[in-house]
Write a structure and sequence with these properties.
The protein is of the alpha/beta class. The protein contains 13 helices and 19 strands. Bound molecules: nicotinamide-adenine-dinucleotide (NAD).
Length: 375
């Protein structure tokens, strides 16, 4: 069976779905791997490196896609790509199933079996396939570097002949995978870090990274199934905004990462809160694409409001394509190990990972939430 590695066509997407070292492992297992010419170019993996790993390079995209058993990619396929897939073939990719349910419908109409890597269950067994975690770690790290490069101040405390510099104060809102990586990165740069999350369970993780946990007790359950945050009531949102307002006002940098799966991102930083911040302060909003955690965020733009710079970066993992691709590819390889038995696909829906992740097969949409989103 042939696995095809796609060249990404999405504007700004620099990642690639498999890297040469991992292609070599698939080839060793007896699988054929075809690579679209230039697939790894933007992440600095050359065609020669893939060839050396045992892959065949294809200049003809239609031929590669049309003959592949499995197509591996990063960004959801566009219409012109979906039309290249043959009935019964498999796509493994990020598919944004709740954000772009119409793409899922088109894949079902094409009778393609599609796996949305965002829907890998958050279980210990699936941890090594969890692309949301691997890519969120990249985003959390890069968010802090962007903040440090934008801030008109040092992050660390410096004692110099020219006087002593106080460390920057960083406030991380949302301490999931991206938030924890942001805390660790800001600490490594020497900042004094505070963090907040509505899930009380993260307190210890925050403290173990050397940050102070800003504790807020809400009168409702904040944790949903699978350990995710629940969407909280408007009243609780208001209360948290009031309680974190002082910390936001005193911060040199605020990194927001709060998300609730399938929902618009919660508003954590209001315009009034931004107005109270110090001129020169920086906000990096990692939820920009989901509507933003800050009222002033514009996705894909840097805006300055009363001297406060608000960055709304999109697709940050793509800005670090070498390691983001390496981690994504490792997630894909581990997933392929459970999907493929030696060299043949084994669609075992009794396996919760396969069952959860497969969004379309045989012309049907398998995921109830995607079907609801289309109604
Ligand atoms: P996420 O990207 O969905 O959300 C980021 C953070 O925002 C979360 O910590 C969430 O609690 C927080 N948040 C939501 N609403 C908020 C609000 N109003 N105010 C402040 N914070 C808010 O989360 P994630 O990083 O993908 O992780 C979510 C959960 O999944 C965590 O419990 C994590 O430990 C768990 N997880 C498990 C595995 C695994 O077992 N394989 C892997 C990764 C993550």
């Amino acid at each position: 069976m042939r696995i095809a590695l796609a060249k990404e066509i999405e504007v700004g997407e620099r990642r690639v779905g498999l890297i040469p070292d991992l292609v070599a492992r698939l080839v060793k297992q007896g699988l054929e791997v075809g690579v679209e010419a230039g697939a790894g170019e933007k992440s600095f993996f050359s065609d020669e490196a893939y060839e050396k790993a045992g892959a065949t390079i294809y200049d003809d995209k239609a031929k590669l896609w049309g003959e592949a058993g499995i197509v591996v990619k990063v960004a959801p396929p566009k219409d012109e790509e979906i039309s290249l897939l043959h009935e019964g073939s498999i796509v493994i990719s990020l598919l944004n199933p709740l954000g772009k349910p119409e793409t899922i419908q088109k894949l079902a109409d094409r009778r393609v079996t599609a796996f949305a890597m965002e829907t890998i269950p958050r279980t210990s067994r699936a941890q090594s396939m969890d692309v949301l975690s691997s890519q969120a770690a990249v985003a959390g790290y890069k968010a802090v570097l962007l903040a440090a490069a934008t801030a008109p101040k040092f992050f660390p405390m410096l004692t110099t002949a020219a006087g002593t510099i106080r460390p920057a104060k960083v406030f991380v809102m949302g301490a999931g995978v991206a938030g924890l990586q942001a805390i660790a990165t800001a600490r490594r740069l020497g900042a004094v870090v505070e963090a907040f999350d509505i899930r009380p369970a993260v307190k210890e993780e925050v403290q173990s990274l050397g940050a102070k946990f800003v504790e807020i007790k809400l009168d409702e359950d904040t944790v949903a199934e699978g350990g995710y945050a629940k969407e909280i009531s408007e009243e609780s949102k208001k209360r948290t905004q009031e309680l974190v307002a002082e910390t936001v006002a005193g911060a040199d940098v605020v990194v927001t990462t709060a998300q609730v799966p399938g929902k618009k991102a919660p508003l954590l930083v209001t315009e009034e809160m931004v107005a109270r911040m110090k001129p020169g302060a920086v906000i990096v909003d990692l939820a920009a694409e989901q509507g933003g955690n800050c009222a002033c965020t514009e996705a894909g733009k840097d805006v300055v409001v009363n001297g406060v710079t608000v960055l709304g970066p999109i697709n940050l993992p793509s800005s670090m394509p070498v390691h983001a691709s390496q981690m994504y590819a490792k997630n894909i390889l581990t997933f392929l190990q459970i999907l493929i038995d030696k060299t043949e696909v084994n669609l075992n829906f009794e396996d919760d990972i396969i069952d959860n992740t497969c969004v379309t097969t045989g012309g049907e949409i398998r995921n109830a939430r995607v079907r609801e989103a289309l109604d």
